[in-house]
Structures are given as C-alpha cells and as structure tokens.
Amino acid sequence: MIHLEKVLMRHFYLVRHAHSDWSPDENRPLSEKGFKEAARVADVLSAYPITQIYSSPYLRARQTIQQLASRLNIQVQIESDLQERILSCKAVDDFLDAIQQTWEDPYFAHPGGESNRTAQNRAIGVITKILESESDEHIVLSTHGNLLAVLLQKYDPSIDFAFWRSLTFPDIYKLSLESPDKGIIEKLWD
C-alpha cells in the first residue's frame, strides 16, 4: 500500500516596489506613476487567495502594496529584513558597476555594505520565519530589486546581474515552495 503525504505548497508573491523618483532618502515615496502602477499590482494580486502581506519598512514598498491590502482587508506587517540591500555606507562612483561587482562575487561587499550572500541569507531568513510560523499558503512580500533578485537566486542559480537589470518598477514573481530549499519561480508581471 502506497501512502502519499499531502505536500503543503506555500506561495510567496514577491513584489518589487513601483516607481519612485530617486533620492538618497531610502524612505522616499512613490511617484505619481508609481501610485498608478500600485493599483495595477492590486489588480494582478487580488486574483490570488492572498492571506498575509509583509512589507519592507521603506515607504515606497509599503505604498506599492497598500492598495492590495485595503482591497483584501489585510493588515500589512512590516518586516525590517525585507528592506533593500545596503550596497555601501558611502556613495559609489558608478552604481551599475558597483552592483555588478557584487554579482560577480557573492561574498564581495563594498565598504559598509552587504554582499549578495549576506543579503540573500537575510531574505531567506524571512521566508524561513514565515514557513515556521504561518499556516497560510499565499503570502505577499513587498520588497526591493536587489533583495528580490538574490532571494530568487537561491531557487534558480542562473539568476544573475542581467536578471537584476531586467527587473521593472514594479515587478511580481511567484515563488512556490514545496520545502525551504525547493521552489518554482513564475513571473506574474508583464
């Protein structure tokens, strides 16, 4: 007699925040364009049976997901470990070159910054904490481009600097996990 265990599949909807006008203030708000995009994020994700919403503490990530939270009557839970990866403690001369260096060596960190591996471990810690404490199966994580990319790289090692560059403002990926180490990635944003 064969016994089949029911596998609890967890679905994480990873949202990169919508457009914001760049400033050195990490807590900057969405732009007018970003608010319109956030409405579309709510349209896309409201088609799924979302049960929990977590967000980076940064305003642009919270604002990106707030319309969905209001529509579903779900409170957004702030998760500090979803904040963007710290690239460096000081301004870098060439932002794209500085990011590329971190993708070429996952253990490399600019002065005062996080390596890709350190940021990935922080993001995986969020997933692990949710897997250990939540029974819900459809969970939104609103975050930032670098953190989203290094998190997905855990489940698809081919994800690289070019993938990060291809991300849009906003972007949505569905990560379906059978276990903490086995996941299926699907792009939901077009």
Radius of gyration: 17 Å
- Helix and strand succession? EHEHEHHEHHEE
Structural class: alpha/beta
Distance between the termini: 46 Å
Mean pLDDT, nearest integer? 93
Strand elements, count: 6
Largest sheet: 6 strands, mixed
Q: How many DSSP H or I helices?
A: 6
**What is the CATH superfamily?**
Phosphoglycerate mutase-like
CATH class value: Alpha Beta
Do you know the CATH architecture? 3-Layer(aba) Sandwich
Q: Report the principal-axis shape.
A: globular
Number of domains: 1
Under CATH, the topology is which? Rossmann fold
Note down, in words, how this protein is organized.
The chain is α/β, with parallel strands linked by helices. The chain has one domain (10-48, 60-135, 146-187): Rossmann fold (3-Layer(aba) Sandwich), CATH 3.40.50.1240. Helix content is 38%, strand content 18%. It contains six helices and six strands. The protein has helices at 32-45, 59-72, 95-104, 116-133, 145-155, 161-166, and strands spanning 10-16, 52-55, 76-78, 138-143, 171-179, 182-187. Strands 3-2-4-1-5-6 form a six-stranded mixed sheet, with helices on both faces. α1 (32-45) crosses α2 and α4 crosses α5 (145-155). The radius of gyration is 17 Å and the shape is globular. The model is unreliable at 1-6 (pLDDT under 50).
